[in-house]
């Protein structure tokens, strides 16, 4: 019987990143299979964004990062951008730029140097604006959009990039609950329709557990736990690493994490 080798979409081995002279990530290993959705969780400052930035080539570290089987260090910028699209937590908003032009920036890896965008590039932008319900904003200046509208535009730019691996750093933090579900369902739909791989960070643990195939808990720059959401979203691990008091209950699509006040916390009665 011949062995079938499956190339990982993302493979990180023994990654160490220092920023400002301090170790931020230390000995991090992570594998994401093609088509998988992995969500990295962890308390503030754990190193989640730094991990995504390192995989996206936005910060450098020591160790190895392979993208679809190729060492990232060997990839040209354009080729890496065709493989991996990143939505960072606070992307720069170029002053005076219209939404359609911002989303068109996602097509940069396909436009020849000194060349112009093709009809296919413009069609890809139109399609993604449509899918994210942003067509009505196409000509608006990006800076004038609300936080949630902008967040959808940032995602639109990443989707327009047509990469197979999406790195999403807190992709729904500014969205209302309806748009959160809409955007995450869309990402999940694209994952199924186009075989996208998703590596995300999220603070909403219930939502994170509903969408992820696997989760990784980062704490102090190291992997503290990894596995199925049921193995990572436990009251014990969340108490230990977040110092949070929570109840974890079974939901239809994964564990639901409910914050609870300490027993005996005084409840103020309403003034009569
Ligand atoms: N350029 C930098 N120079 C020095 N320290 C940095 C730099 N960038 C990030 N850090 C530090 O690295 C640590 C990890 O930051 P990172 O943004 O990766 O954490 P995070 O887990 O994404 O946090 P959050 O949940 O708050 O977004 C933090 O302590 C942060 O202050």
Automatic annotation (TrEMBL):
Transmembrane parts of this sequence: 51-73
Cited Pfam families: ABC_tran
PROSITE patterns registered for this protein in UniProt: ABC_TRANSPORTER_1 (PS00211), ABC_TRANSPORTER_2 (PS50893)
Leader sequence segment: none
Organism domain of life: Bacteria
Alphabetized UniProt keyword annotations: ATP-binding, Membrane, Nucleotide-binding, Translocase, Transmembrane, Transmembrane helix, Transport
Residue ranges of every copy of the ABC transporter domain listed in the record: 10-245
GO molecular function, one term: ATP hydrolysis activity
InterPro entries: AAA+_ATPase, ABC_transporter-like_ATP-bd, ABC_transporter-like_CS, P-loop_NTPase
Protein name: Iron complex transport system ATP-binding protein
């Amino acid at each position: 019987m011949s062995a079938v080798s499956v190339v990982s979409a993302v493979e990180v081995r023994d990654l160490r990143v220092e920023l400002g002279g301090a170790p931020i990530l230390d000995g991090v290993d992570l594998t994401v299979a093609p088509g998988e959705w992995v969500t990295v969780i962890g308390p503030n400052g754990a190193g989640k964004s730094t991990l995504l930035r390192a995989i996206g080539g936005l910060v450098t570290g020591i160790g190895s990062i392979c993208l679809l089987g190729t060492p990232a260090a060997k990839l040209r910028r354009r080729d890496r951008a065709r493989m991996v699209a990143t939505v960072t937590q606070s992307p720069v908003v170029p002053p005076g730029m219209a939404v359609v032009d911002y989303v068109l920036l996602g097509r940069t890896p396909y436009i020849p140097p000194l060349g112009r965008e093709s009809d296919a590039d413009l069609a890809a932008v139109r399609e993604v604006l449509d899918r994210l319900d942003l067509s009505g904003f196409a000509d608006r200046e990006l800076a004038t959009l609300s936080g949630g509208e902008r967040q959808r535009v940032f995602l639109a730019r990443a989707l327009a990039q047509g990469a197979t691996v999406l790195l999403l750093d807190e992709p729904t933090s500014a969205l209302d609950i309806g748009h959160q579900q809409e955007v995450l369902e869309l990402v999940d739909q694209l994952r199924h329709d186009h075989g996208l791989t998703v590596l995300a960070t999220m603070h909403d643990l219930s939502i994170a557990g509903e969408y992820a195939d696997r989760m990784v808990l980062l704490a102090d720059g190291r992997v503290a736990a990894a596995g199925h959401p049921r193995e990572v979203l436990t009251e014990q691990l969340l108490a230990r690493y977040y110092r949070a008091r929570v109840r974890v209950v079974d939901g239809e699509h994964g564990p639901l994490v409910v914050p609870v006040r300490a027993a005996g916390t005084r409840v103020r009665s309403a003034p009569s």
